[in-house]
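Preliminary data (for renewal application), shikimate-3-phosphate complex.
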Amino acid sequence: MKKDNIILMGFMGVGKGTIARALAEQTKQFAVDSDDLIESLQNRKIKTIFAKEGEEYFRNLEQECANWIEMCVNGTIISVGGGFFKRPNFKNLGTIIYLQSSFEGIMDRINNAPNAKNKLKKRPLLQDMQEAKKLFDTRGPSYEEIADIVIDVENKNIENIVNEILKKVK
Ligand code: S3P
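Predicted structure:
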């Protein structure tokens, strides 16, 4: 049986954490983020984990996180890192919502943020824009395939996105 968590999935920088917090405020639930959980478990930043241990090690931590959610978490809004959807038990974790935007829309969102530099610096897979665009192009179809609900977030404000999600999950 599907768990009653809401899982926010999508490419890096699309606004998963922001939407998760706004959604949680509306529904009076808790919002958690897979990257935050991993950083807290490891007591170090994702960037450091990638640099010191490599990507595979990080993906194993994502798997531990997915297993914990599957076994222990219910009734929660969960934003997940852009590559988390590859965990084999991902679909079991809750209703999967894909926050969709064009690559340009995502880059504009990041570059217009007050902390744009940090948003870019903290993401190892956003250091080379050509590689990031390739990753975006290959992941798009997988996100669509795995999602229960697709929400177009481009040029929409947070309130509208949250309302759209709430209408569709009911
Ligand atoms: C990644 C996305 C990041 C983080 C890690 C890898 C990815 O999370 O998990 O840097 O593979 O797309 P955000 O999507 O929150 O940036």
